[in-house]
Amino acid sequence: MIANPRAGRWLVTGAAGMLGQDVLAVLKDAGVEAEGLRRADLDITDPAAVRAAVEGVAVVVNCAAWTDVDGAETAEEAATAVNGTGVRVLAAACAEVGARLLHLSTDYVLPGNATQPYREDAETGPVNAYGRSKLVGEQAVAELLPQDGYIVRTAWLYGEHGPNFVATMLKLAAQRDTLDVVDDQHGQPTWSYALARHLVDLGLAALAGKAPGGVYHGTASGRTTWMGLAREAYRLSGLDPERIRPTTSDAFVRPAARPAFSVLAHEGWSAAGLEPLADWRVQLAEAITRPAFSELLRMPSAR
What's the pTM? Predict the structure, then answer.
């Protein structure tokens, strides 16, 4: 495809991750010149390296992150070095060269005790170390890039290029007759490729002067629970949804507390002239046909 010169050159950090790979694929299809840097290629906590990497770049999509939620409980300083300090370094470099920064954040910066979807301007209040580390990053972007910083909160991501809940459920279908899945945590399962498409659209809108900086909620529309997601994945795959049985979070004690309510509102997209992401069922129905998921159903003992 012929490159789109008006889009400038883009940089994707964390390019080996599930979302990073999808962002690069979408950029390629859109004819946008882009470079992807993995963790081994770029330490985002190194100011000199980051400054060199962003030189001549129009848009940076930061997918680099410490993502081990439970591990952050005993290594909060290390998590914050990446999710907080590293983001500050990126934001400062982008401010210096005049690049837009699309920074991926998380629903975990919110307290998770609401009964209505969280607006983009909702008061933050992380319940675990991971959320605190990500909030430090958000604050850095807001401070250093008030006009050219885009904080995109996402949640419950699944995709083709890494471990995720949907893939795990399909794998386990070949191994177990029934599965107990949590039914008291509410959120918005989001296909990483669908989010990648929206990130590229947001970046292009930013370059065109149509998208204001600030917080955007990059999650699917609608809502469900982990059990609801598992059952829908089974239904779409021709498996019996009743094999998924409801249980509570108390049955799966984890080192880090999880928000009980991770449903986000999507008013911010209208300011950029963009529609919110599609309903989670629509996304899942498209994603489940991709080879990475459909091949899991060919396992000999799958029912």
Answer: 0.96
